[in-house]
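As a warm-up, study this chain.
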Amino acid sequence: MTYENNTEAIKAFTRAIELNDLIANAYANRGLSHHRLKEYGLAIADYQKAESLLPGLSSYNMACAYSLLGKSDDAFQWLTVCQKSDYKQSKEILLSDTDFENIRSDARWKKIIDTDWSTPYDKAIQEIDVKYIAKDIAGAIEQCVKASALAPAKTKPYLIQSLIYSNNQEWDKAVESLDKAMTINPKDWEVYASKATLLYRQKKYDEAIGFYEQAMALNPEYSPQFDLAMAKFAVGKPEEALKNLKLQIEFYPRDDFAIYFAGFLSYNLKEDAAAMSYVNRALEMNPEMPDYHLLKANIYLAAKDYANAIAGYTKALELNPKLAEGYYKRALAKAERYAKTYDKQDKKDFCSDMEKAEGLNYPGAAQYLRELCN
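Now compare it with the structure written out below.
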């Protein structure tokens, strides 16, 4: 659906529903995919099922579909449901949505547009942003407290409060806010996801992994595969990290950085053929990334293909002249080639590159200079 391949999206959402027919978002998003294909009857059927599972979720899209079908009574009914729900839309969004062209001349449209649908809780939530943007941190926190008092069963005020504290690196207060949210609703996946992110930011990767997994168990749509991969790599589990990256790439085949990182992990696991395949894919999508060329050169160097390694390091350095590893590794490649050919230019270039690497504080460069370049 992200890539607007709505036919394939419908197949995938249908399979999800076959596996678990209680996922509201599966119906809502399959409905949206039908909607984009102008299959409004099928879209409405899915929206209605989503509404039965999670009221308000598809109310806006339902109103859009009925408007496009010229069924104004149904369109206004669902617009009203939407504006009374947690999924209410701003006046600006309503005015800009071309799906409502068929009903704008109806007198009920002006009433929908002109009504202030915000509850005191909504206004307290909105005021948090106003205070935070104005850099009134204490005021923003105060609004979080006000919002939670107005709606004690909602976790959102505590989630926002935690984010504010974490942005200020007040970690203990951030954790305390999330713990309060967890007592209010121990099945709110966003609380676990937020705690995972909080722990990740503190480099508590092992703990973060556990909370990511709990959030995923509560919400089958939540799939932080890249974050999990980075956390597992940080705790020394590259094989598991690679598995998560492969899932990330399956979901997002145009994520060139995830593809590159899968190549990086494969290279470190000495799976050079797989590493080369990944890095070539990444370079096809983004040929201007110096680190991608650096990885490809490293793979060539491991294979003792010095000419291609040197060319790769040179390309990486053209894109980033301050890439210390590029100078260091290119120097090593030239030293390896010199040992076979005794080309004096390679020895001279070795010292020149190692000097640049040393100037950029690359570990080990100074020792090579002392031992081989006097």
